[in-house]
Give the backbone structure.
Amino acid sequence: MKIVIAPDSFKGSLSAQDAAEAIAQGFRRVFPDAHCETIPMADGGEGTAQSLVDATGGRRVHVEVRGPTGRRVVAHFGLLGDGETAAIEMAAASGLPLIPFGERNPLKATTYGTGELIRAALDEGARKLIIGIGGSATNDGGAGMAQALGAKLLDADGNELELGGGPLGALDRIDLSGMDARLSDVETVVACDVDNPLTGPRGASAIYGPQKGATPEMVQTLDASLVHYAKVLHRDLGKDVERIPGAGAAGGLGAGLMAFLNAQLRRGVEIVLDAVRFDERLDGAAFVVTGEGELNRQTAFGKTPMGVAQAAKRRGLPVFALAGTIAPDADVIYNVGIDAVIPIVPGPFTLESAIRDARSLLTNASERLARLIRAASGVRL
């Protein structure tokens, strides 16, 4: 019997790889001869690069880059098992946690380090980039990323703009003559699960700027700068990205990736499913097990268990989910292909204890699920 085990990470306690192994251990207690196909999963957020590395037998590459404030930081990306696909999380180089709370200033924060990660991935031979853009500290429209890759953003005097979202208001023209030539042969897909445009009341500055330290006055300045930036992108690059859903993600990095790298924005879990060849690995499976730390209403809108369940349902396979917490509004997940949910905590637990004992709790819960499946289906050793 083949069991496909495809969980997300259990935040704060288990990586997706650790969770998959814990679930497999529980099933082997009941079905010792079963083939457990473990596939660490993610939905484009934190941990996606590591999940893809684990799922494909790749490796993690560490690089020193310029952080969002300009200070050097050690970031990383994943080189997948095919040796040609790189998984990059922009937060590793340009994320909000890299800036102390009192120093957050999206007028100056830059995505330059994300561009340096892309360049490092090209140096490793990458011909496809998977870029997760959650958790940003920036509001520069991806300008810094482009500058790190050789684009020149010039003011009216021909001087290069300083880094950050604020200086974009002085942008006069864009010169791509120095852009890294290798990018022309690279496919770029971006994990993006929001539909915000670049500018306006639902744009990058208005919606996400305040959490990055922007005052109301800064929001106005940043939005005006991005409006101007979008006009120059349209004029000089022929890319009209301002109103495209997702252009405002990560402080406008979505727009920058589309404009400078011809990127395609897709739902994160769909990118991961394709990268790990999920449909192919369902061949011969009896059922599928997924899970994450908390199942709630949002799970049904692009999270890992939803993506896994929908892919499995196209094959007519039963899908079971394990979760640390099952929210009161989680019933909606039954509408997206999950057949049953099993909590991993057997009784009252403190959060600290649940996190500390997550692996054993998950293994024991998967054993309980395996016994239920055996009893219900008549499967025997």
Notes: The mean pLDDT is 95. The longest helix spans residues 216-237. The two ends are 10 Å apart (CA to CA). The CA atoms of residues 229 and 296 lie 38 Å apart.
